[in-house]
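Table S2 (text version). Query chain:
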Amino acid sequence: MLCEKRQAAANCGLKGNAHPNVHVHLEAKAIYDDKGKHRQWRFGMIDINDPKQLEGELRKARNELEERVALRTTELNQRNKQLVRLTTELTTCRATRTAPAGQSAA
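Corresponding structure-token output:
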């Protein structure tokens, strides 16, 4: 009877002439007999190109969104400062107009 005692796994990027960016998930398992003696290795490889590609696209979209949010936040802060300034000017103007003649509005 053979049993699997050890297992290792890793995601790797492979480079070759036909496919310059191939991503795979590798698994290696050590197989032992009843007495604990190592008998063989079993290897498996799974193509994970699609998930890796989607992960890259998602990362790019997130970065673009963060840039857009930062830009919009800056614009909103500038507009808010402008609104505060205009509100202050309007309040000052109204106070000056409504003050009795010869007195300044305080």
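Notes on Table S2: The two ends are 97 Å apart (CA to CA). The first strand starts at residue 3 and ends at 14.
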